[in-house]
Amino acid sequence: MDSAISDAVQSCVARLLTPLVRVLLRYGIPFGVFMDVAKRIYVDAAMEEFAIPGRKSSISRASVITGLSRKEISRVKRLPSLAEDRLQDSYNRATRVISGWVRDPAFADARGEPAALPLEGAEKSFSRLVRTYSGDVPARAILDELLRVGAVERLENGEIRLRSRAYIPSEGEEEKISILGNDVADLISTIDHNLQSPESDSLFQLKVSYDNLPREPLKEFRSLSSNQALELLERFDKELSSLDRDVNPASEGTGRVRAGISIYYFEEEIPDQGKED
Questions:
Q1: Are residues 97 and 41 part of one domain?
Q2: Phi/psi at 262 (5° precision)
C-alpha cells in the first residue's frame, strides 16, 4: 500500500478509536478484551470477504493477510460468539411499533397525533398496534420493553401514551450501546462503499459544520434541527414502510435489502487560542 494512504488510514483509525476508547474505558472494558474482539473481526473479515476467488478460505490465507499466527487465529475462532440477536430483534420490533403509531391514521387522535391507546378491547388499541406492526409477539412484552426504556407511559386511566416519536431509549443503557454499534457501523459502511464505488453509484453522505460558533445560539439551533430532522425522517419512514414486506406484504420486487437514512447532531468545544476572531 502507498505509504501516504497507509498513513491516512492509520490517522483515520486513531480518530475513530478516540471516542470509542472513551466508551470502552467508561464501561470497564480492558485492552485485552478489545484486542480479542478486534482479532475476531479481523479473522472473520479475512476468511469471509478476502478469500481468493474460486478457493475455499483457510487459516493460512487469513494468517497471511492479518499478520496473526495460525495458532492465534485458531484460538480466536474458538472465542464465544459476539451475536446480539436478542437486542437487535427488540430494537427492530420496538422501532416498527413506534413508527406505525406515529404515521398510521388508524392509531391517531382527532389532531392527527399518536393517540393514547387502551391496552386491549377497542379497535384502536395497543394490542392491535402491536399485532399490525410487530407480528405475533405478545403486546404486554412489547409494552414492558417500551416502558422500561422510557418510550411510553401509562396514564391514570390505564391508557398508554407515546412519549418519544423515535426509539431512543432514555433508560435502557444496554440498548443505547447497541444503537452505538449499529449506527456507527452503518456510517462506516456507507463511507467504505463510496471509497470503492464510482461517483454514479455513491450513497448519500453529506454534512454541514462550522468551527467558530458561539455557545449561546446553539441551544436554539439544536431544537430547530431536531424538529426539522424528525419531520424529514418521518416522511422517509412513511415511504420506506410502504415498500417493506413486513409492513406491506403486497410490496413487489426481488431480493431482500436493508436500507435507511440516519441524521445526527454533533458539537464539541474548541480550546481558546487566546485571540479574538
A1: no
A2: -125, 140
Q: pLDDT of 148-203, one tens digit each?
A: 878 899 999 999 999 887 766 655 567 677 778 888 989 999 999 999 888 889 99
Identify whether residues 117 and 50 lie together within a single domain. Answer: no
Phi, psi of 245 (to 5 degrees): -70, -25
Contact criterion met (CB below 8 Å) for 73 and 43: yes
Please state, rounded to an integer, the average pLDDT across all residues of the chain: 86
Range of the domain at 22: 1-81
The C-alpha atoms of residue 59 and residue 213 are separated, in whole angstroms, by: 52
pLDDT digit string, tens, across residues 30-52 = 998 899 999 999 999 998 888 88
Going by the DSSP 8-state scheme, the letter that residue 153 receives in this structure is E
Instruction: Return d(Cα 190, Cα 185) in angstroms, integer.
Output: 9
Distance CA 256, CA 35 (A): 34
The reply to whether 63 falls in a domain is yes
Whose CA is closest to 140, among 153, 151, 159, 127?
127
Is 138 among the domain residues?
Answer: yes
Instruction: Kindly report, residue by residue over 217-226, the tens digit of the pLDDT.
Output: 999 999 999 9
Please answer whether residues 242 and 251 qualify as being in contact, where contact means their C-beta atoms are separated by less than 8 angstroms.
Answer: yes
| 26 within domain boundaries | yes
The C-alpha angle 64, 69, 70, rounded to 5 degrees, equals 90
The neighbour count for residue 75, using CB atoms within 10 Å, is 14
Residue 250 lies in a domain: no
SS3 245: coil
Burial class (CB in 10 A: 0-12, 13-18, 19+), 149: buried
Residues 6+ apart with CB under 8 A from 108: 114, 115
Are residues 64 and 90 located together in one domain of the fold?
no
Kindly list the distances between the CA atom of residue 5 and the CA atoms of 12, 13, 16, 202, 220, in Å, as whole numbers in the listed order.
10, 12, 16, 21, 40
Report the number of distinct structural domains present in the chain: 2
